[in-house]
Amino acid sequence: MKREEFFEALSDIDENMVASANQSEEALAPMIVTPKKSYMRPICTAAACIALAAAVIAAAVSVSLRPDSVISPNTQEKGYKTTVNLVNMSRYPDSLYLYTGDYSKLDMHYMGDNLPDFVSASKYKSYEELAEDSSLIVMGTFTDQSRQVAETNKIPDFVESISTDYYNGYISFNTLKVEKVLKGNGKAWEGDEIVIAMPYTVGDYDPAEDEGGFYSFSQLTPMIMGDSWVYFLKDAPSYPEDIYGYNAYCPVNDYEGRYPVPGRENASFEYRENTNGVVAPAVFNESVYSELEERLAAAVTEKRPPYEIEYKKVIDIAKELDLRHTCSSNVIIEFEMGEFEGKVFGIENGRLYVRTPGASEERSYLAGGTGVYVNPGATYLCDLSGDGKREICTEISFGSGLVNNLIWVLDYAEDKMYFLSDRGKYDYFLQERNGELEYKYCVSYMQSGYYSDDFSADILTLDKMTEYSLKDESENDPVSEPESSEKVIKIRDLTVSGDGSLWDIPLEFDMEDFPGILFTYDPDDVNGTGLYVKEGDASRPLFRCKSITSIYLCDLNKDGKLEICAGICLSQKGEPEISSRSIVVIDYSNNCAYCLSDEKNYHYSLGKKDDVLYFSKSDAKTGDLLSSEPLALDVMDQVMAGNHAQFILPQS
Questions:
Q1: Which H or E run includes 534?
Q2: What does pLDDT average to over the chain?
Q3: 349-363, 532-546, 571-585: which range is least confident on average?
Q4: Which residues in 343-352 are b (16+ Cβ under 10 Å) and which e?
């Protein structure tokens, strides 16, 4: 499954959650996970779909939950350059009405007709005066049909509109393709399309006669596709965005801010005393117009300059571009990383894409889609994997109606992605602080019903995330998969800091050592979370605990058969939200079990490095890592012996 298909599948989760839960089990094919023909497949339930559509994910990608070991972000200078650009900061509002009729056949209604005392005297006497009050001066051509904020079904009362600011609802927009820049603002460059906003609107006030009206608060003629103009511009109001869009521009002092391009005549538009694009009582400013031809000829072509960022351990793209976090959703950002030569990454409308510059600018979408939004205001570049090539780390909001915030990391070099999410329990956010990439988390709005400011923070490392391979799923085909010589097989690993687990996914796996036996895990079992043994239709618990955070297969006693090694959580007495992390090893072939646990003093967790199973020991109070060494049975306590007797771990 391709990336875009994966995220499209995610976007359908909220709407089709129950249907997916009922149908997905039959649709899933087993996936090989060990050289001894062991298979693992998720078991989809409604609860699992709520956690994050486990069945959809498992069918789409190769699951390898958590990396092999804790890896610190790379701090070494690799000489890679980073170039970032704001491709377009000028955007329409979200909802606009398009008029496709003939402007020349419209009845004209101008504000000045109702306000005979309206003052329209020229404010500027020269080009220099007008340019001084302009933030941007450009020559360009309209590339779109004019759009407006709302469809108008009656003639506006101009006097009332002016007095109540209701005229804000009569704004039209068009995109101007910039051909020359006479005065720049650092945002718009030659080749860009910027949004021009002007105070007029078109509406059908007499549908029976199929007649429409042109209602203008401006003394400028309409913006018509194909017309070319020189604009003296100022920034349009930034609020409200549903009226003015984002980073749109308005002509300075209305009619004094637009002039025809000398020698390039626009199609005529009859509007009373139409002269060079303005209407009476406006007076066309000949003194400004007379200088345009010379100034346009002297204008120097300037393409958007690359903005290169010096190498840093963490690059905060929004901070480098001085973007406001709350308004960043409307911009188009593109960036290049030196380690991926010939690739340009971009974010537009909440979707991350990659393209190859050249004759074909076709985009390949990497993340985002309906209901899955990539936040360009919280996107970072950092080498979390330690391979010398940076990952793209960003916040993603997921859901429609019930929205959850999670962290997503793309390892483009290895075609992998990582998630930090706990659907419905916690919201996760990214930040750069003191040169480190941190993640913050708080109780989710979905759980609490209010937006919390009670955050916890920690350094982001890949061992705290869930890993998914984005390679073609045919690589997971048991028929074509070459046998591996791995001694340690990772089934799952879902540990996160704090209590709980990521996407608590039910699953089944078997081993060639034990024909006809399935080992199953269901986190939503009414009798308690744990690992079960299933033979035919009969099922019995092997052990129970608060939650299982990791499962590995490894022959620790060297008898030629694999043991089940699991990281588990136990609840402390009186504190059900605090977990004590422990390790249990099930030697199923020899009817034995071993446990490594110290609820009060230490946390124990499992990891794999260089095909060796390691256990880490950390301080239960501070979380500080104390040691990490290969796991051996002699460091554990034997807690059970018998004929596959039920082993139930204590729950305080």
A1: strand 530-535
A2: 74
A3: 571-585
A4: ebbbbbebbb
Identity at 586, one-letter amino acid code: I
- What DSSP state is assigned to residue 169? G
2-7: long-range pairs with CB below 8 Å, 24+: 3/364, 3/365, 3/366, 3/367, 3/470, 4/364, 4/365, 4/366, 4/369, 5/60, 6/57, 6/60, 6/61, 6/470, 7/365, 7/367, 7/368, 7/369, 7/372
Which residues face 392 on adjacent strands? 381, 410
Q: Residue 276 burial by CB count (10 A; 0-12/13-18/19+): exposed, middle or buried?
A: middle
Q: What percent of the chain has pLDDT over 70?
A: 68
Average the pLDDT over each of 65-69, 90-94, 184-188, 425-429 and give the range with the smallest value: 65-69
Give dist(CA 550, CA 340) in Å, integer. 34
Note whether 645 and 580 are within 8 A (CB).
no
Query: 457, 472 in Cβ contact below 8 A?
Result: no
Give me 477's structure tokens. Answer: 């085909």
Least confident piece of the model among 86-100, 140-154, 433-447 = 86-100
Checking if the pLDDT of 376 tops 90, the result is no
Task: Give buried/exposed letters for 366-396 (b at 16+ CB in 10 A, else e).
Answer: bbbbebbbbbbbbbbbbbbbeeebbbbbbbb
Q: Are strands 258-260 and 315-316 parallel, antiparallel or unpaired?
A: unpaired
Tally of CA atoms within 13 A in the half-sphere of 555 that contains its CB: 13
State how far the Cα of 620 lies from the Cα of 603, in Å rounded to an integer.
Answer: 5
d(CA 542, CA 429): 38
pLDDT in tens, 582-593: 899 998 888 888
Structure tokens at 586: 């099930």
Separation of alpha carbons 86 and 335, rounded Å: 9
Q: What is the DSSP string of 89-151?
A: --B--S--EE--S-GGGSEEEEHHHH-TT-------SSHHHHHHT-SEEEEEEE-S--EESS-
Buried-state track 431-452, b at ≥16 Cβ within 10 A, e below 16 = bbeeeebebbbbbbbbeeeeee
Reduced to 3 states, what is the DSSP secondary structure of residue 276? coil
Nearest to 10 by CA among 461, 464, 403: 403
Sequence-ordered strand ranges (E) for 320-400: 332-337, 344-348, 351-355, 363-367, 372-382, 391-398
What does the pLDDT average to over 17-44?
A: 34
Per DSSP, helices labelled H in 283-419 are 286-298, 317-320
Burial (CB count <10 Å: 0-12, 13-18, 19+), residue 397 = middle
pLDDT, position 42: 36
The span from the CA of 469 to the CA of 466, in Å, is: 10
Q: What are phi and psi of 523, to 5 degrees?
A: -70, -15
As given in the structure block, the two tokens for residue 98 are: 């398009």
Is 0.85 surpassed by the pTM of this model? no
pLDDT of residue 409: 94
Q: What is the pLDDT of residues 486-537, one digit of tens each?
A: 788 877 654 333 333 334 566 778 888 888 888 887 766 656 667 888 888 7
